[in-house]
Specification:
The chain has about 375 residues and is mainly beta. About 5% of the residues lie in helices and about 50% in strands. β3 and β4 form a beta hairpin.
């Protein structure tokens, strides 16, 4: 059976390698749920954690402005990886330890001060023991020390502060959840039984405060959220991916995921989703869109060369978009949690939709350009 990787947001896939390595060392049989084709999403239940699955993440990106019109970007991501295989090592303990672990939690946070071209990034790594990090299954609450996601059906709060940089935001969905791989186009995704369960909130009205070097500023804008729960997927021929989440000012959103193979070509199982202003969605298989790289940028820190401008065309949808980073240096350099670097940054969009000019904002994520993912953990 061909395995399939669909829109696993950047670092999350690397975490799968790490979790696999740790569990393999335990020599234990894992008891993990396997995502199935045709999973029936149910909300609000699926807003919460799914701890029986091996890996899960909540991934936020956003484009913000202050009252003076200065622009900012942010990312905040919470990852949970099950360490069920490690339980075999705990069966010899006479008394369960407070340090016992069912899961390991990672979190990444960035703040981009676009006017001053300053980019700040941070990470957290914690075990579930002692309650330092966790994810609730009966409510929307995910945390890694004092970084926290919480809320209900109507609104979410997202808080993260590190070294006098961070944010305290309220996010209100403007559209219903978008379940990827479905929509008004046929055929739908060719998904095998172990495919990830993946949905997004593609446009969240965002208000709150941003903290830069200890100074707080009120901001407004829009955000995007991905939530995925899945089994570990290791696809040896895949090297990385380019992920686009674009919010246009006519109310349309575009998500594209281009999976890169080790031979430099793109996996035909790549795809995306077009979300219309009224919330209806259309699946975009790889052959329904074209992405051209117009420019490249080389990081002075890692030496990695990334794409740095794109032309995206959806011919059947009469959409042409030019996507440009709001600043070049938005690389998360050599993170401890993944022993690697990746680029994820705020972008501006200009183009045309149905013959009318359109603008927008969004985020692009580029992973695997510094070496394919399978080599990151010696595989």
């Amino acid at each position: 059976m061909r395995q399939f990787l669909f829109s696993i947001s950047a670092t999350a896939f690397l975490f799968l390698f790490l979790a696999a390595s740790v569990c393999a060392q335990s020599g234990a049989q894992q008891t993990i749920k396997h995502p199935l084709t045709g999973y029936a999403f149910s909300f609000p239940r699926d807003f919460y954690a799914h701890n029986a699955y091996e890996v899960e993440w909540w991934y936020f990106t956003g484009n913000l402005k202050d009252r003076a019109g200065k622009e900012y970007g942010y990312q905040c991501s919470f990852f949970r990886v099950s360490l069920a295989g490690m339980k075999a090592l705990q069966q010899y303990q006479e008394t369960p330890s407070k340090w016992s672990n069912d899961h390991i939690y990672f979190a990444h946070m960035t703040v981009a001060d676009l006017e001053n071209e300053k980019f700040y990034f941070y990470e957290r790594i914690n075990r579930s023991g002692l309650g330092l990090a966790g994810a609730a299954e009966d409510r929307l609450e995910v945390w890694n020390e004092n970084w926290k996601l919480a809320g209900d059906d109507n609104a979410r709060t997202l808080t993260a502060l590190e070294e006098e940089n961070g944010f305290d935001l309220k996010l209100v969905p403007e559209k219903a959840p978008v379940i990827h791989g479905t929509g008004d186009d046929k055929p739908k995704w060719d998904i095998p039984e172990k495919a990830p369960n993946y949905y997004s909130l593609t446009r969240l009205k965002t208000t709150g405060t941003l903290t830069l070097n200890g100074e707080r500023v009120e901001v407004t804008g829009t955000s995007w959220m991905d939530h995925v729960f899945a089994e570990r997927l290791l696809v040896p021929e895949q090297a990385g991916w380019d992920w686009f989440s674009l919010k246009l000012d006519n109310g349309t959103e575009v998500m594209l995921l281009r999976i890169r193979l080790q031979d430099g070509k793109y996996d035909p199982r790549s795809g995306g989703t077009l979300v219309k202003a009224d919330g209806t969605q259309a699946h975009l298989p790889e052959e329904k869109y074209k992405v051209e790289v117009l420019k490249k940028w080389t990081s002075p820190k890692s030496g990695v060369t990334y794409p740095a401008a794109w032309k995206i065309t959806l011919p059947e949808r009469n959409i042409t978009l030019h996507v440009v980073p709001d600043m070049a240096a938005q690389e998360l350099f050599l993170l401890r949690s993944i022993a690697n670097s990746y680029w994820e940054g705020s972008v501006t969009v200009e183009g045309a939709h149905d013959g009318k000019p359109v603008r927008g904002k969004g985020y692009v994520e580029l992973v695997g350009y510094g070496g394919n993912l399978s080599t990151a953990f010696g595989r």
